[in-house]
Automatic annotation (TrEMBL):
<protein>
    <submittedName>
        <fullName>Zinc-binding dehydrogenase</fullName>
    </submittedName>
</protein>
<dbReference type="InterPro" id="IPR036291">
    <property type="entry name" value="NAD(P)-bd_dom_sf"/>
</dbReference>
<dbReference type="Pfam" id="PF00107">
    <property type="entry name" value="ADH_zinc_N"/>
</dbReference>
<keyword id="KW-0521">NADP</keyword>
<feature type="domain" description="Alcohol dehydrogenase-like C-terminal">
    <location>
        <begin position="12"/>
        <end position="134"/>
    </location>
</feature>
<dbReference type="InterPro" id="IPR013149">
    <property type="entry name" value="ADH-like_C"/>
</dbReference>
<dbReference type="InterPro" id="IPR051603">
    <property type="entry name" value="Zinc-ADH_QOR/CCCR"/>
</dbReference>
């Protein structure tokens, strides 16, 4: 099993990534905070890193040998600062930029260690179908934090902005 880091682990995508990685035999290190830690651990994380503290140092503490894969929906400073955490031939998969899209990194880390940065939007029908099938076989349980009718879109946006929820915010007609 590989060691996998999941950023944004308390969001809907992050929780699904934690479950998928665990199901595939990975040792899962998930980044979350506060009251969300229990839910992330329940989803399958072996260790939860508190984003309110030094993320890089915490990961080094539990994975001094480095990590094989980072599944990242945050990007921003995490990408540039965290790239040295990758083992030889490690992969950093970016599927979001909640932490910012303007990233500074030392490219030598890529070519001297055969590391890869991979963008993933899951937008092709084939890719999406593959992920759905993996989720079905693994018994992945989507986590819905709250549902709102379309008329309450502003309220749903406020809930999302508070960043206190665990899982997805769902809108319905």
């Amino acid at each position: 099993g590989e060691t996998v880091v999941v950023s944004g682990a308390s969001g809907g995508v992050g929780l699904a990534l934690v479950q998928l990685a665990r199901e595939r035999g990975a040792r899962v290190l998930a980044i979350s905070s506060g009251s969300k830690v229990g839910s992330v651990r329940e989803a399958g994380a072996h260790h939860v890193v508190d984003r309110a503290q030094d993320i890089i140092e915490q990961i080094r503490g539990v994975a001094p040998e480095g990590v094989d894969v980072v599944l990242d929906v945050v990007a921003g400073d995490l990408l540039g600062e965290g790239l040295p955490l990758l083992r030889e031939a490690g992969r950093w998969v970016v599927a979001g930029a909640l932490g910012g899209y303007d990233v500074k990194l030392d490219v030598r880390r890529l070519y001297l260690h055969n590391a890869r940065i991979i963008g993933s939007a899951m937008h092709t029908p084939r890719h999406f179908d593959l992920l759905v099938e993996l989720a079905r076989r693994a018994g992945i349980q989507p986590v819905v934090a709250a549902t709102f009718p379309l008329e309450q879109a502003a309220r749903a946006q406020e809930e999302l902005g508070r960043r206190e929820h665990v899982g997805k915010i769902v809108m319905h007609p």
